[in-house]
Amino acid sequence: MARFSKIETLSAIVSTGIVPVFYHQCPQTAKDVLKACYDGGIRAFEFTNRGEFAHEVFAELSKFAAAECSGMVLGAGSVVDGPTAALYIQLGANFIVGPMYNPDVAKVCNRRLVPYTPGCGSVTEISAAQEAGCDLCKIFPAGCVGGPSFVKNIKAPMPWSMLMATGAVEPTEENLSGWFRAGITCVGMGSKLFPAEAIAAGDWDSIAGKCREALSIVAKYRK
């Protein structure tokens, strides 16, 4: 079950501003990356349902987070249906993220008061998700659907919208400043935050450093 309430989870995501998006088939590597992000100041982390037996890795990661990174809000991503959402919630997911909007997932999450952040590529999809109780919607794939300009144009007629950009997000001042100046609530960031060479070398300090740098940029430009 989720360790954090819906309000606590959303607050952690919004206040942090960056949600690392990560998958690895090795439980120990996943734990090391999670701890590096935690040491770097990250307080919300999305483990994606991408590989075989991903839920088993997540189960270990969830227990590790509770024991070693008590302030980390751990969620599950790439969830496309209700049964999968229920499985991850049972294993301790504090939030659920998907590449698209599925009303069945919204029902499962709402029943347990777990935030559901669906992927949306249009104003209509965002509106439908909001009507179903999705407080935070994911612009996905963010770089393809219009980038920061898309976010700015949505916020004009729908200023209450809380949006997370995932895809085409990089831990650089040029990139992050564009998203946060446009009014994005937070960003999801994957491989750019976890260089393959750093993971292969077990250089967890460099990953923690990247997190710190990215968070300082977000603090500088967020509205």
How would the blueprint of this fold be written?
Layout: H1 6-16, E1 18-22, H2 27-39, E2 44-48, H3 54-68, E3 73-77, H4 82-90, E4 96-97, H5 103-112, E5 116-117, E6 119-120, H6 123-131, E7 136-139, H7 142-145, H8 147-155, E8 162-166, H9 173-181, E9 186-189, H10 196-201, H11 204-221
Parallel strand pairs: 1-2, 1-9, 2-3, 4-5, 6-7, 7-8, 8-9
Gyration radius from CA atoms, angstroms: 16 Å
Please provide the count of β strands: 9
- What's the pLDDT, averaged over the residues? 97
Helix content: 40-55%
Question: Approximately how much beta-strand content do the residues carry?
Answer: 15-25%
Number of helices: 11
Please identify the structural class as seen in this structure: alpha/beta
Query: N-to-C terminal Cα separation, in Å?
Result: 33 Å
Spatial shape: globular
Short summary of the structure?
This protein has 223 residues and is α/β, with parallel strands linked by helices. It is built from eleven helices and nine strands. A seven-stranded parallel sheet has the order 3-2-1-9-8-7-6, sandwiched between helices. A two-stranded parallel sheet has the order 4-5.
